[in-house]
């Protein structure tokens, strides 16, 4: 009788027979899909770069700092649109991050019965499925009229502050930021909740066993442990805010004058592309719009690259702590 091999001598990573063939096919398929995604990304970037060549050649790097946008005189500068995209997205993060974290904590902890937490989480995630044009219409007919008294109050009470120095008339940079915060709230809330639920329960038990209260456990143990995932969710939401088109176009006012006041109208890169691309006939005009698209592409790639570095840095510090 042959004695079975000791368990320690068995290498479960080694495949034989048909399993080895299927493993090989699966590995090649995964590699192929990964390269296909990278290839599509490079292809998009190359097409946008080619179409923007004429504007890049004529305006150079000065395009990024020029405020002139006159189609009839073929003078194009992208600063008002770059400024509007960054400011409106930043406003969105200011409101969406604390709200998203609150939703994540509420739906991952047992402050409320499960029968209430589940519908709340579902409703927040459901916002992500609403088309942006519908959110834009809601912004025009409901959101702006409801918040108009708030804008007027900010102007009358804090008009001496440059951020609120313009008399509001409805659409504004602030309204665009608030609409964007509603749109990116599900991304931050849902991903942060899943990350908090993935924190090992032993950490919570150890913290409370040492005498920490519920809030101390959440603030000092759970959130730091899940910080890499929360940062990733925030940057992912920022990427969506930068590229959002229809809803922002409908509530931002579409003014290419740079005004530091948040109550004044503004413009964004996606908004100007939506409004002008279909009517653009001159090659230089199309090239300028594609130059803006290339700038947005670079900003988004930069933001996502920064997110990856932040997440890796936080993970290393967490593991080293």
Describe the structure.
By secondary structure, this protein is mainly α. Helix 3 crosses helix 11 (about 270-275), helix 4 (about 115-125) crosses helix 6 (about 175-195) and helix 6 runs antiparallel to helix 9 (about 225-245). The chain has 12 helices and 2 strands. The longest helix is centred in the last third of the chain and has 38 residues, at about 285-320. It is about 70% helix and about 0% strand. About 30% of the residues are buried. The mean pLDDT is about 85. It is globular. The protein has a two-stranded antiparallel sheet with strand order 1-2.
Features:
mainly alpha, 71% helix, 2 strands, 321 residues
Please mark out the parts with pLDDT under 50 across 5 or more consecutive residues, or reply none: none
Cα-atom Rg, whole angstroms?
A: 25 Å
Beta strand count: 2
| H-E string | HHEEHHHHHHHHHH
- Please tell me what the overall shape is: globular
Helix content: over 70%
Distance between the termini: 52 Å
- Strand fraction equals under 5%
The number of helical segments is 12
What is the averaged pLDDT score? 86
Characterize the largest beta sheet: strand count, sense, and whether it forms a barrel: 2 strands, antiparallel
Class from secondary-structure proportions: mainly alpha
Q: Kindly report the spatial arrangement of strands forming the biggest sheet.
A: 1-2
